[in-house]
Specification:
CATH superfamily of the largest domain: Peptidoglycan recognition protein-like
Largest sheet: 6 strands, mixed
Radius of gyration: 22 Å
Helix content: 10-25%
CATH class of the largest domain: Alpha Beta
Shape: globular
Bound molecules: zinc ion
Strand content: 25-35%
Number of strands: 16
Number of domains: 2
CATH topology of the largest domain: Lysozyme-like
Length: about 280
């Protein structure tokens, strides 16, 4: 489905372009919604703009400030050859955010991927990640602001941990969709919300005979097997819990009284993990 683009006008742009060859991703390092970013660009005194602003609020909706055929003011000498997007992040994200923190903003990343695909379709710029020398030379494709070097203003966004590979997979539609859980799994656990954490409690009878747990969503997660008092085992599944995870002997889950799966979404939103006991 096409992105809904909410128009917020600005006078900070050049008419036309010099032949677009770059799709450039930035982080706003301040405004955390497309509305706030649009209001910032709307002030002529700020002398800055971007084509669109992409936040983590609503899947499928972004802000648009400069039309595609005109040139925004955000990457110095690259402006006339680029179509550009700001990811709405707090100050310090480009240097401070880990890969997992970026991945926790899945709505923003998916909106960004949709924007890349739509711009690629409209302009013919390929969904190919460029090296800095290609981006600063004559390459046609996708890059971050940091890849433009001094020629593009000498900025560091989106940063070293930005998951460009994941966003590009989404943009090209090559990301494997996790298989839907079987119907009977719908009722087999209950979810407790504690602060920013969702805890899935799975009755032990569903774990009998299983030595693997499978979580369908790339969120950080812990699996806690509760045995008799004092013998609980905690297994940290790490940043990407989408792969099957062995529960090692002698802690066979068939002997556990309960299995708790805790999914941490970071900011408390977007908890989409599901549980399956399939092997
Ligand atoms: Zn930038």
């Amino acid at each position: 489905m096409a992105l809904k683009r909410v128009w917020i006008s600005t006078s900070n742009y050049y008419n036309g372009n010099n032949g677009r060859r770059l799709l450039v991703l930035h982080s706003s390092e301040g405004a955390q919604s497309y509305q706030d970013l649009g209001n910032f660009f709307a002030h002529g005194t700020n002398q800055a703009s971007s084509h669109v602003g992409i936040d983590d609020k609503v899947r499928g909706t972004i802000g648009e400030y400069v039309k595609r055929n005109n040139s925004a003011w955000t990457a110095q000498n690259a402006n006339m050859v680029a179509v550009q997007a700001e990811l709405c992040t707090p100050s310090g994200a480009s240097q401070g955010w880990s890969r997992q923190t970026w991945l926790n903003h899945d709505t923003m990343l998916r909106n960004a991927a949709d924007w890349l695909r739509e711009e690629s379709n409209a302009t013919g710029i390929p969904l190919t990640v460029l090296t800095p020398s290609q981006a600063q030379g004559s390459g046609r494709g996708v890059c971050q602001h940091k890849d433009l070097g001094q020629w593009g203003g000498g900025h560091t966004d989106c940063g070293p941990n930005f998951p460009m590979d994941y966003v590009m997979e989404l943009a090209k539609g090559t990301t494997q969709q996790p298989p839907p859980p079987p119907e009977e799994l719908e009722d087999m656990f209950n979810v407790q919300f504690v602060g920013s954490t969702a805890r899935l409690v799975i009755p032990v009878q569903y774990c009998k005979g299983k030595s693997k747990l499978c979580l369908a969503s790339p969120v950080s997660a812990q699996v806690r097997l509760q045995f008799s008092a004092g013998k609980d085992v905690t297994r940290d599944l790490g940043g990407d819990a989408s792969q099957n995870t062995d529960i090692p002997e002698p802690n066979n889950p068939a002997n556990a009284q309960t299995v708790l799966v805790t999914l941490n979404s970071g900011n408390g939103s977007g908890i989409t993990g599901s549980y399956s006991d399939r092997t």
